[in-house]
């Protein structure tokens, strides 16, 4: 499997540069938020797979995201244990 040519070494360098200039011109007329989303999406696609995976998993690193399901499971377990304990106590 051979290495792919970078843009700098590509025979289509002038075509790529012209397409970039057209895109830049179009983006200057677009909404700023939309332009930022396009640029961020392009940056993610160009980044190495390892960095893409790290960036994709970044929201899962939030403590709140894990605290809510764990709290729910704990509450359900405690409710079940309390129900069994009360049922045995009443009997």
UniProtKB/TrEMBL annotation:
Q: From which domain of life does this come?
A: Bacteria
**Entry protein name:** DUF3040 domain-containing protein
User: According to the entry, what is the taxonomic lineage of the organism?
Assistant: Bacteria, Bacillati, Bacillota, Bacilli, Bacillales
Annotated transmembrane regions = 64-88
Query: Does the record's keyword annotation contain Membrane?
Result: yes
Keyword annotations of the record: Membrane, Transmembrane, Transmembrane helix
């Amino acid at each position: 499997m051979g290495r792919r040519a970078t843009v700098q070494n590509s025979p289509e360098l002038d075509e790529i540069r012209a397409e970039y200039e057209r895109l830049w011109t179009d983006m200057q007329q677009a909404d700023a938020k939309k332009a930022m989303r396009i640029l961020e999406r392009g940056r993610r696609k160009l980044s190495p797979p390892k960095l893409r995976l790290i960036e994709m998993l970044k929201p899962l690193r939030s403590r709140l995201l894990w605290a809510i399901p764990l709290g729910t499971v704990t509450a359900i377990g405690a409710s079940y244990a309390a129900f069994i304990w009360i049922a045995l106590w009443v009997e």
